[in-house]
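So, can you check this one?
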Amino acid sequence: MAAAALFAALVFTTCQSLSSVFQEPRLSLHSVELADISFTGATVLCKVNVENPNAISIPFPEINWEFYVNTNSFINGKINAGRSIKARGTTVVEVPVGLNYLEVFNTFNSLKGSRQADYKVSLAAKFVLPVLGDKVWNFEHEGTFPVLQLPRLSAPSMKMDKIDFTKAELLFTVNVENPNVFELPAPSIAYDYLVNNNSFIKSSIKAAAPLAAAALTPVAVRLTVNYADLYRTFQSLRNSGEVPGLLSLKSDFALPAFAGETGSLEIPGSLPLLKAPSISFAGLSVQNLSLTKIDFEIVWEIENNNNFAMSVKDFSYTLAVNNTQWAGGNVSGAPQIGANRKTRIPLAFSVSSLSMVRDITEIITRGTDVAYVCSGNLSLGAALPALDDFGSPFNFTGTTRLRK
């Protein structure tokens, strides 16, 4: 009906007055912006302003577009909404150009590692107008878009978080650097802990949260090295005091554009191999004998097979002979337990009970065996960072002869 009315008007109108009856639409490039930027791609959103100055509706334009990357044609398309633009109305036509990073890298592999790339978008808006025929408006816009970059692992560190004589707890920290202007999914990190260049612990972790845009995200890897498992796996380490360790990391960032590509990092360090000290009962001897008092000496032997000295923090004990308690207390002034050596700890005590003196004198004179029970608790400390004190109860039983 609009075309018929226009034709009727044109029949009675001269060519000179044609412009007063029907005017060309007015088009302008409203804006071009990057939208929906993510690790999969982005959208270049073009907006064309279309103004219809006529008293009748006109057909919607057909818009052809072509997208160039670094002056090279990449993709193209066409939009035709199939509707009309109302009389004396203004419409903003949106032309979204989808940009997929996987497709970009497949076409322009050289862009990998670049921070950004130049682009140009060309638009051709075509109107099919009654009587006036086809009219085309051409627009171009140039700009840059960010190129997806693979995150990097950096700034590694390792510390002994906690250690005792059964296990070592290691804390490795690595920063995952996201150089992109958009958030990335939480990565998975596979690790392999090698001891003396041999694989010992393998597993993987996943970061607790997505990687923030243009930021460093710390990721912690905690490992527990059980000494019993270590010595079973590598028997040759039993006599070692320290061994080189290495944590090898490989990250999967779940980015389709970088499928199969990983980030890697190695964190070297040393692993102390601790061995629990041992205590043994080294004997009971008579130092002085009289009619009213007997002086004794108890000797313990502590073996420290570590590369560091240890100090006695607590040494409580009781000694019973033939079911009678002879001595008890806490050793004071004990010597330092040297590194890689055995240290004897003697303790002198006296018995002055006349009945016990007579019984003990008879035992010594006859040379008969006596049953003893020596029990207590030993606590050793060392000036080694993160090392817990070594505590061990002991209980020695046996028979011996009391000799002067």
Remarks:
- Residues 287 and 296 are 5 Å apart (CA to CA).
- Confidence is low (pLDDT under 50) at residues 1-16.
- The first helix runs from residue 2 to 11.
- Helices lie at 2-11, 18-21, 101-107, 227-233, 354-366.
